[in-house]
Amino acid sequence: MSDFFPEEIIEKILLRLPIKSLIKFTAVCKSWSSLIKTSTFVQSHLCTTIDSNNQNDAHLLLLSAYSRSYSYPAKESISNEHHWLRWDSPEFGKYSKLSNPFPFFTYENQRRDLRVFGTCNGLVCLESFDPCTRDCSPALIWNPSIRKIVMLPTPPACLTSTEYHNYRKYTSHGFGYDSHSNDYKVLRVVSLSDDHSNLSRFTTVVQVYSLARGSWKRLCASVVPVDLQAGGSERPDFVNGCLHMLEIRLSVYYDDDHQEHRKCGGDSFIAYFNLATEVFGEIMIPEALRKDECSISRYGESLALIKNKCYNLDDPANCGCDIWVMKEYGVAESWTFLYSIVMVQATIFGFKRCGEVVLEETNVLRLRRMLSLDPKSGQVKVFGTEYCTYYFMDSFVESIVLLDHAKAISYQGEIKI
């Protein structure tokens, strides 16, 4: 083709090809392979795909779940991971099921799961999790579109002093993209919690992994907020270049019964971590919600705040959750109440572009089902299977990110880790 078309025309053609065709064309000739695997082309292809998806309203959502099975003759419980792509549309149709590049349980390591905790620009980040000890650590970055993974090095040990042996460690992980340096980063927060004041509120360590550098670094203790605590059930939400976590302001009081100082929780607030500057900041939430049980979720290019309400037999209509949205990202005064969802228990997974909310409903019999709910009409679409426990949802874009990474491992079937 180079005999008939200038190189810049060939590049423009390649940029518009689907990923499967593009991967095949790396075998056409050395010049095409070299071009497609450059960082500039990888980034240009991502931008082209995002623009095309926006023009055609062809957006995807990644949903992850796990199921349990039993191995014989050992008769041990085995966790099986499942990942689906669905159209981010009112129809919410299936797009594809992603095949795992690895067995989540091997003969040598049968007690650890791998769970998704973040996705960005076609990359999926997973942590290795031990259900027995609750220990977890970031394990790998995976691009299912091009069947490549990057294994993450083990984070440096922290909080290992003998004075901490009687305290349990809690960890939280977040994943996102630093557009200023074209780098993907993992945030790891490790906390040692107790209710006494002799550990300076919470002892917390923050580590950051850079895909570009291929290594971990520990942030200076002076930049770590004193109220930052790991171990919550939520995963940090990546919005506007920052990872967001709902935290509780801590205070110290004197316990007359035990004659010692103790810690207690105060108002809630949103802490964020800027991946470019690697600095923490805060976003205030509405005063009326600061003492309520809440959670946060990404809502388009901003944030949603979910107030959870417990089911009460004496007041069955006052249950479910209230949804608030920050209309203008970063502006606390723009928090606005949207609507209430009335059901025994609602666990929010995220919001679709059409305004529908994806959630798990639990009824009075503790039976659960996954729903896509239109809050305006009240119509619901039931999806999923009762044998799977869903735990993650976020937007997804197919990309060739990692194609240019020197340490990315290609796979065809499954590989052991």
UniProtKB/TrEMBL annotation:
<feature type="domain" description="F-box">
    <location>
        <begin position="1"/>
        <end position="45"/>
    </location>
</feature>
<dbReference type="InterPro" id="IPR036047">
    <property type="entry name" value="F-box-like_dom_sf"/>
</dbReference>
<dbReference type="InterPro" id="IPR001810">
    <property type="entry name" value="F-box_dom"/>
</dbReference>
<dbReference type="Pfam" id="PF07734">
    <property type="entry name" value="FBA_1"/>
</dbReference>
<dbReference type="InterPro" id="IPR017451">
    <property type="entry name" value="F-box-assoc_interact_dom"/>
</dbReference>
<dbReference type="InterPro" id="IPR006527">
    <property type="entry name" value="F-box-assoc_dom_typ1"/>
</dbReference>
<dbReference type="Pfam" id="PF00646">
    <property type="entry name" value="F-box"/>
</dbReference>
<protein>
    <submittedName>
        <fullName>Putative F-box domain-containing protein</fullName>
    </submittedName>
</protein>
<dbReference type="InterPro" id="IPR050796">
    <property type="entry name" value="SCF_F-box_component"/>
</dbReference>
